[in-house]
Design goal:
- The structure is a single chain.
- This protein is α/β, with parallel strands linked by helices.
- The chain is 51% helix and 15% strand.
- It contains 18 helices and 15 strands.
- The strands form 3 sheets. It has a 7-stranded mixed sheet with strand order 3-15-14-13-4-11-12, sandwiched between helices. Strands 5-10-9-8-7-6 form a 6-stranded antiparallel sheet, sandwiched between helices. The protein has a two-stranded antiparallel ribbon with strand order 1-2.
- Strand 13, helix 14 and strand 14 form a beta-alpha-beta unit.
- Helix 4 packs antiparallel against helix 16.
- The protein is elongated and about 115 Å long.
- The two termini are 33 Å apart.
- The structure holds adenosine-5'-diphosphate (ADP) and magnesium ion (MG).
Length: 489
């Protein structure tokens, strides 16, 4: 956020000044590049606040009912008055017994009773319980999510998430740790390993892809490897394929085999890396001008809890699917470790291919959630019914996703689905309560039980009931907070 402009002990120009930095001696010139309102935390606050205002489609029913409710209730009150003042009291003379024994005239007693019952109807009717049913649960649900690092963009998202039956996972960085390491470099005759890594690292220095990070780390770890840089403005990254640039006047390409073959124009059979150390490893190729000069084998660990998370998802009736830009063989090997069925592995796809894959799943009638971490997943995240971004909440993926998992932990995916189900259950309970309350209390207030057993309401009791009804809905929504805090992942 803030950039240092002058050298201070141990720090150089261009360093970032983080919160809590202490300046012992020397002068600091700090440049502020954005104000507090643009900071990540404040973005999160805005996101949660907007989310709490976005309600679930299920609410439409109660909104429609609540909208017409007032007219309905006035109608029922008028009908109640007309009925009791007209012929109700004559039909059931017993209802006037108490008033008459107090000495009132029959006409006065009838009028008082009719007015009181009509008032009861007006007072006991509770459209607020209907109106509060969904928004309060959404408010508590999204709030409880935010507290656990699940940023959910609204009630509509919670509702769709509760119906998801297929979860598509990106491989690199989502099912794997996304912190891969270089395990082997193989080169052709015209170049040696250190040169190959040096050229590759010069390109990858500019990329944020996990593979790029692995290559740069490997190059930095070995001091024998000469440091090179891409010439200015020549760097270009193709999501899901690779990265290219000009280094020492030569066109260098680092990426998957097809793309490097296409870029260099080398024969497509030119796979220098015929046998991998492990079928689960990823191989990227280094192209120089018109040749493939080497390949770099990269190992990425499967997240330690991935197997369990996928098992729990399957147990809850959700099908996991793997979607990756990586080679099919690598992806299938990783999938087999995780118990994902072979037919549910879609590999070797470009970012647009990922969108198509999501669309074809949707076309088959599935409600699809996509979990991804990178730029290459952004389009697919936007296309899925529910897009879930992992890995911190700052990347492009987070901007288009419906849900952002701040903790970068895979079990949070399960938490999300559980929380969405809990919230929807709370909404349904609230609505059942609100409808049920009105269905029972309105007739009671209108005096339907009076002729049968003398059971009726007074305006005071009606008022109390109506207050309690709203409170009950609020309390049930607040209980969601307690229930959600028990979600263990
Ligand atoms: P995933 O879908 O599993 O997250 P990506 O779509 O990010 O994988 O990448 C797919 C493939 O594209 C990688 O396996 C790699 O071969 C290649 N690739 C993408 N970006 C780069 C890069 N910056 N450097 C090298 N290879 C890359
Ligand atoms: Mg990825």
């Amino acid at each position: 956020m803030m950039m240092m402009m002058m050298d201070v002990m141990g720090m150089g120009a261009g360093d970032t000044v983080t919160a809590g930095t202490t300046n012992f001696d020397g002068t600091l010139v700090v440049r502020c590049t954005a104000s507090g309102g643009d900071a990540a935390v404040s973005n999160i606050v805005t996101l949660v606040e907007t989310a709490q205002g976005r309600t679930a489609p299920i609410q439409r029913l109660s909104d429609i009912v609540a909208g017409k409710f007032a007219y309905g209730v006035m109608g029922v009150a008028a009908a109640t008055f007309l009925f009791w003042s007209g012929f109700g009291a004559k039909l059931f003379p017993r209802v006037l017994e108490t008033s008459l024994s107090g000495g009132a005239s029959k006409a006065a007693a009838t009028l008082a009773l009719s007015l009181q019952l009509a008032c009861n109807v007006l007072v006991v009717a509770c459209p607020c319980a209907l109106g509060l049913a969904a928004p309060t649960a959404v408010l508590v649900g999204t709030g409880a999510g935010a507290r656990r690092g699940l940023l959910i963009r609204g009630g509509d998202v919670l509702e769709t998430a509760s119906n998801v039956d297929t979860v598509v996972f990106d491989k690199t960085g989502t099912l794997t740790t996304g912190k891969p390491t270089v395990v082997r470099v193989i080169t052709s005759d015209n170049i040696n390993d250190t040169e190959c890594l040096s050229y590759a690292a010069a390109i990858e220095e500019n990329s944020s892809h996990p593979i790029a990070h692995a290559i740069v780390q490997q190059a930095l770890a070995d001091t024998q490897i000469p440091q090179r840089r891409v010439s200015s403005d020549s760097f270009n990254q193709v999501p899901g394929k690779g990265a290219e640039g000009i280094v020492d006047g030569k066109n260098i390409y680092v990426g998957n085999l097809d793309w490097v073959v296409q870029k260099t124009g080398a024969p497509s059979s030119e796979d220098v890396h015929t046998a991998k150390l492990n079928p689960g490893h990823t191989v990227v190729y280094v192209g120089m001008e018109h040749n493939i000069v080497g390949s770099i084998e990269i190992a990425d660990q499967v997240r330690h809890n991935a197997l369990e998370v996928l098992k729990r998802l399957k147990d809850s009736g959700i099908t996991p699917v793997m979607l990756s830009g990586d080679q099919l063989t690598t992806s299938q090997h990783v999938a087999s470790q995780l118990g994902i069925d072979t037919e549910n592995v879609i590999a070797g796809v470009t970012p647009l291919g990922k969108v198509d894959a999501i669309n074809s799943l949707k076309a088959k009638g599935h409600i699809v959630a996509m979990v991804g971490d990178g730029v290459n997943d952004a389009a697919a995240l936007a296309e899925a019914d529910v897009g879930i971004a992992m890995g911190g909440g700052v990347a492009v993926a987070s901007e288009v996703a419906d849900i952002v998992l701040l903790g970068d932990r895979l079990p949070q995916v399960i938490d999300t689905f559980r929380l969405s189900k809990m919230t929807m259950n709370t909404i349904r309970q609230n609505m059942a309560w609100a409808f049920g309350y009105n269905m029972i209390c309105l007739p009671l207030a209108a005096g339907v039980m009076l002729p049968i057993n003398g059971l009726g309401l007074t305006p005071a009791l009606s008022g109390a009931l109506m207050g309690c009804s709203s409170l009950a809905v609020m309390a049930n929504s607040l209980l969601l907070q307690v229930r959600a805090s028990k979600i263990k992942s």
